[in-house]
Amino acid sequence: MMTTAAGRVAVVTGANKGIGYFIALQLGVSGIFEHIVLGCRDVSRGEAALATMKPLLPSTVKASCLPLTIGDSQSHLSFRTKLEELLGPPAKVDVLVNNGAIAFKNSDPTPFTEQTKPTLDINFRGTVEFTETMLPLLRQAGKHTRDSRIVNVASQSGYLSQLSPELQQQFASPTLTMPELKALIDQFEKDVQAGTHISKGWSNSNYGISKLGLIAATKIWAREEATNQITVNASCPGYCDTDMSSHKGPRPPEEGAKNAVLPATMENPPTGEFFSDLKVRQW
Ligand SMILES: NC(=O)c1ccc[n+]([C@@H]2O[C@H](COP(=O)([O-])OP(=O)(O)OC[C@H]3O[C@@H](n4cnc5c(N)ncnc54)[C@H](OP(=O)(O)O)[C@@H]3O)[C@@H](O)[C@H]2O)c1
């Protein structure tokens, strides 16, 4: 386990319900954070979650909720500003768990081509941009404790082999840069709009490509942020009983949450890995 440190702060996005709620709760009861901050796009839902969570936390652990809409640049910046005010100087974040995401239901009548942009904007582009906004605070923690962490809640749906061998090679390249990854994801969107994504080697899953992109981003940050003492891992909670799965998943969300809590709290975490069923798995 991470050693206890006074002032250790964890931020969890999309924490008002489902898996994110339990990630925040479990980080809070772990005894290794002093302050848990829930990022929620609807503050009233966030405050309600906080009211349920607080009695379950040790009395020494502070929990707060701040408004955060992933995919809205202004909201990302205002979240950081409000967080800095809340924490006071020198503000730092020890653990960021990027959990908030969307998935269109199979029954949703929105055409596939119209689901692409909103899915990528939240699950990939917004999550990447929000993380970039938070990196100065994570680096600050890395400087002080030499142990700062990002956990990206991805999915098995982001598996690499859904791509053609050529695209697999590009996404898994150990020299892939963030601008190159963003361009690849933009290309997927263009190919979907042109009706050519299948023939060009992409899968037929907006959600799958959004999570694949997030796993690729995890590996890039793991390489780039190593010197800043930040480990970056991705996780899959498994098929869980939440609103996202229309409660069809068999796994309780508190069990799924453990796959993000493990890399967020374990001693000597690896970096750039993908956790599923509480083990490091091949992408
Ligand atoms: N459930 C599964 O079987 C499963 C499987 C694999 C991976 N996952 C991943 O696990 C994570 C949690 O999923 P879940 O099942 O707990 O989903 P969920 O019950 O639908 O909860 C999603 C959370 O994300 C928030 N959110 C969505 N869009 C947001 C945005 N733009 N900005 C800020 N917050 C946003 C939601 O807020 P609102 O309450 O305001 O909507 C909610 O708090 C997601 O990353 C998901 O892709 C889930």
Automatic annotation (TrEMBL):
Looking up InterPro entries in the UniProt record yields: NAD(P)-bd_dom_sf, SDR_fam
Q: Does the keyword Protease apply?
A: no
GO molecular function terms here?
oxidoreductase activity
Task: Please name the Pfam families in this protein's record.
Answer: adh_short (PF00106)
- Judging by the UniProt lineage, the source's domain of life is Eukaryota
Q: Keywords assigned by UniProt?
A: NADP, Oxidoreductase
Q: Is this entry keyworded Protein biosynthesis?
A: no
Family per UniProt?
Answer: Belongs to the short-chain dehydrogenases/reductases (SDR) family.
The identity of this protein, by name, is Carbonyl reductase [NADPH] 1
This protein's species is Seminavis robusta
